[in-house]
Amino acid sequence: MGKRQTRMKRVFIVSKHPLFGQGVENLLAQRGRVAIVGHEQDSEAALRCIQVLQADVVIVDCDSKDTALCALITRMLALAPPVKVLGVGLHDNTLYIFRREEKTVGTVEDLFDAIES
């Protein structure tokens, strides 16, 4: 049996800091395991590009002073087809992995299950 061919993940970068976006792009390009499909500073333009370019993963600068960051991430997670959103903290090297998960809450136990899982 031959090696299983996997499609390279299509990555889009969103950051108010051009040097951050270019730096992440350069670091990821060195590995050759992902395809950088673009980067954008403006969140509305980024949402359009993510869909048009069919990104699988979006990397977001989480240290931005942008107060609308939470709303932007929520909108990204609601895109169809879904994308994985990764936030990178510039000052503390923290990686945040955001995911969309929905559950209908029928009882208080459902809420406790969500808290504990």
CATH 2nd-level architecture: 3-Layer(aba) Sandwich
Give the end-to-end Cα distance, rounded to a whole number of Å: 39 Å
Work out the radius of gyration.
Answer: 16 Å
Oligomer: single chain
Kindly provide the name of the CATH class.
Alpha Beta
Low-pLDDT residue intervals, each spanning 5 or more residues:
none
Could you characterize what this model shows?
The model has no long low-confidence stretch (mean pLDDT 86). It is built from four helices and five strands, in the order βαβαβαββα. It starts with 8 loop residues before the first strand and ends with a helix. The protein is globular. It has one domain (9-116): Response regulator (Rossmann fold, 3-Layer(aba) Sandwich), CATH 3.40.50. Helix content is 36%, strand content 23%.
List the helices and strands and how they pair.
Layout: E1 9-14, H1 18-31, E2 34-40, H2 43-52, E3 57-61, H3 69-77, E4 84-88, E5 95-98, H4 108-116
Parallel strand pairs: 1-2, 1-3, 3-4
Antiparallel strand pairs: 4-5
